[in-house]
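seq:
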Amino acid sequence: MKLDDVGEIIATRSLTLLRDDGTSSEVLAVLGKPQPLPGLETDYYCPYQIRGAGSETVRHTCGIDAFQSIRLAIQSLGVQLDVLIVAPPPEIIHLRR
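struct:
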């Protein structure tokens, strides 16, 4: 399933992106409201996105209910943010929480 946006936002976290040229900008982790999975009304998906650090692709996780889809989305956001910290694109020095 391809999503164009996260829909209704239920949570955000702001981080600071430090570049090697000394400038900084905001990176925003965005969590969308869980929705029933089309065709499977007993399962849910939860959209999420990282804005301000490269690709702003909207991704999602699926769970057996809304709670599990949120939990998995938060875990996935954490993994993607860790990747930015451990192996950042060349122009990024540090991502501060």
